Amino acid sequence: MSSNKNLTGWQRFMQMMTKANELGKEDEIMTDHNYDGIKELDNVLPPWWKYGFYITIIIAIYYTFQVFYNPENYNQKMEYEAEVKQSKIELEAYKKANPELFKTDIKLLTDATSLEAGKKAYNTFCVACHMADGGGGIGPNLTDDKWILGGGMEIIFHTISEGGRPGKGMVAWKSSINLEQRQQISSFVVSLQGTTPANPKAAEGDITWSKQ
Ligand code: HEC
């Protein structure tokens, strides 16, 4: 390219990096492709782009060897083990901070005093939606063997503590009713199971659970 003579160093460098075809000389690189009058030029790939591509290939090879073939280096296995270790530490801390969630002694209370206390609390907090005899209203029937969220002491305790499905109206009671009372209420709910309420609401839920 003789016209290069008049170019500055920078312009020459740019030309080297782009290998752009000079404007006005499109005919030289015109292909015979013609789609409804739209023609195609056979431009070369710009060298700057190709160099970038070569660099990524070199980095990929270097990286592969470093990560997969160099046992001294930090690798996926070490990363996995470090994360498991860290999550165990976090789990322990979480357990310590929330002992109630991990309590395993949520036991069914069957003594008359506890059930009486449970009934009293039930009549305060729950009766509006589940009726005094558990027959159901806004909330489901608690005396039949069909459950939406599940029956049994632990699950009922969990439902009372954490609430039902979002938007259904059964809120989480753990912040307003203490642990002991929730145990008493749950035990009372279990005791309602199998009784015959005056106005039973039709069974709801796919989970079957009964005391016996
Ligand atoms: C504002 C109305 C309302 C109050 C108050 C209420 N519940 Fe509920 N309860 C519901 C609704 C609605 C559902 C169904 C939740 C769902 O579908 O996820 C429900 C579900 C339940 C379930 C699960 C039933 C199943 O079939 O799995 C239990 C157990 C329960 N409530 C116990 C109680 C207890 C105990 C109290 C009092 C501490 C209480 N509820 C207070 C409305 C209420």
Pick out the low-confidence regions.
none
Give the structural class: mainly alpha
Bound molecules: heme C
Largest sheet, order of strands side by side?
Answer: 1-2
Largest sheet: 2 strands, antiparallel
Mean pLDDT: 90
* CATH fold assignment of the domain at 112-208: Cytochrome Bc1 Complex, Chain D, domain 2
- The coarse overall form would be elongated
Strand content: 5-15%
Based on DSSP secondary structure assignment, what is the total number of beta strands?
A: 4
CATH-level-4 superfamily name of the domain at 112-208: Cytochrome c-like domain
What is the helical fraction, as a range of percent?
40-55%
Please state the second-level CATH architecture of the domain at 112-208.
Orthogonal Bundle
The Rg value, from CA coordinates, equals 37 Å
N-C termini distance:
96 Å
Count every helix, treating DSSP H or I runs of 4 or more residues as helices.
7
By CATH reckoning, the class of the domain at 112-208 would read: Mainly Alpha
- The helix-strand sequence is HEEHHHHEHHE
Task: Give the helices and strands, then pairings.
Elements: H1 9-18, E1 30-35, E2 38-41, H2 47-68, H3 76-97, H4 112-125, H5 127-130, E3 146-147, H6 153-162, H7 179-192, E4 207-208
Antiparallel strand pairs: 1-2, 3-4
Heme C binds at residues 122, 125-126, 128-130, 138-140, 142, 147-150, 156, 159-160, 164-165, 168-170, 173, 185, 189, 205.
